[in-house]
Amino acid sequence: MLERLELEAFLALAEELHFGRTAERLHVSTGRISQTIKKLERQVGAPLFERTSRRVTLTAIGRQLHEDLRQAHQQLEAGLARAVNAAVGIHGTLRAGYSAPWNGNLMIKAADAFHSRHPDCDVHIQEVQLHDPLGPLRAGALDLQLTEFPIDEPDITTGPVIAHEPRALIVSADHPLARRDSVCLEDLAHSPLVTITGTIPPYWLEEHYPLHTPAGRPITRGPGATYWQELLSLVATGKGISPICARAAHYYSRPDLAFIPFSDAPLIVYGLLWPSDRENARVRAFVKTLSEIAGMPPPRPALPAGGPG
């Protein structure tokens, strides 16, 4: 009869093919994984893995056992998930939003994992426009979303931080800063700042589109944009410059724009949030799944209401 650790250690090692990563994944020591696998091999009566100083591979018997146990484990997990779903009400539809395409990719991965765990619950994902970052949540169109912090609203619960991303500055390709390898926050005082306009908390704007440099120099406000594509066009035509996540260069790159990394700007913090009065089992389960997919620590049992995560 297989013990739970033997089953989980074997399946994890068969996927990772690395004792260290398997130990990290199961939160035990590498020695514990090695001992567990040796015990299982004694029970089977044959090696399940071929080990060298450079690699770990499954033997033929190991491959067959992995296929048999993987299917059985999936059936057990699905059965348990259905029982849990029935008990806590994880069914129906979960509507999740995101504010940036790099977060959208993460959301899709989390939605796939969530649906495999909770097959009675569908996940619908949509982009949230920055000109109205909290509108869909408050209107009931979304159950939760992944967006830039800070968010400090009395009716919104902020959950765990999911990612930290470096900032860059977008300038037109013929702007003097375009020839630089990096910029600093003081450079924001040299050109009008193209910003996002809409129903946006003032403290959020100050975090991402400040009015003054760290040295206190005023930053001139340029035209405002409602959508990202509009902002990019304003910058490309020389109407101003604008800060953005550095990863945006992979999504919005074009010949009339330059993305220059900041040398001194704080990281952009992305986190989860949802309406405080509509927190439920679906939301909590998705928060847990997304945190795992992002490689972040699992959320605390009691999630804080209000304030940055």
TrEMBL record:
GO molecular function, one term: DNA-binding transcription factor activity
Source domain of life: Bacteria
Record-level GO cellular component terms: protein-DNA complex
Family: Belongs to the LysR transcriptional regulatory family.
Gene3D superfamilies per the UniProt record, alphabetical: Periplasmic binding protein-like II, Winged helix-like DNA-binding domain superfamily/Winged helix DNA-binding domain
Keyword annotations: DNA-binding, Transcription, Transcription regulation
InterPro entries registered for this protein in UniProt: LysR_HTH_N, LysR_subst-bd, WH-like_DNA-bd_sf, WH_DNA-bd_sf
Organism: Streptosporangium album
Protein's recorded name: DNA-binding transcriptional LysR family regulator
Keyword presence, Transcription: yes
Residue ranges occupied by any HTH lysR-type domain in the UniProt entry: 1-59
Pfam families, sorted: HTH_1 (PF00126), LysR_substrate (PF03466)
